[in-house]
């Protein structure tokens, strides 16, 4: 079993976690714990890699949106 926990010290982790919530699965999820946390649990390394890549892309997009909203 692979168990990945990724912590992101980003602004507005609650907002980003809410934006990522619709894509959560039983084995891959994100949440706000003062930081943005991504947790992936799977037996397949390919699935872990794909899930992590998807989260990275979505987090990058969310951060771009937040940056664009700043005056």
Question: What's the structural blueprint in terms of helices and strands?
Answer:
Elements: E1 2-8, H1 13-20, E2 28-32, E3 36-42, H2 45-68
Antiparallel strand pairs: 1-3, 2-3
Number of domains: 1
Assign an overall shape: elongated
Class, according to the CATH hierarchy? Alpha Beta
Compute the number of helices.
2
Query: What's the story with the biggest beta sheet?
Result: 3 strands, antiparallel
CATH fold field value: TATA-Binding Protein
- SS-based class: alpha+beta
CATH architecture: 2-Layer Sandwich
Flag low-confidence runs: none
Strand content: 25-35%
What distance separates the N and C termini? 45 Å
Q: Could you give the order of the helices and strands? A: EHEEH
Task: Name the helicity range.
Answer: 40-55%
What does this 3D model show about the protein?
The protein has 71 residues and is an alpha+beta fold. The chain has one domain (2-68): 2-Layer Sandwich (TATA-Binding Protein). Helices cover 45% and strands 27% of the residues. It has two helices and three strands. The chain has helices at 13-20, 45-68; strands at residues 2-8, 28-32, 36-42. The chain has a three-stranded antiparallel sheet with strand order 1-3-2. Strand 2 (28-32) and strand 3 (36-42) form a beta hairpin. The mean pLDDT is 96.
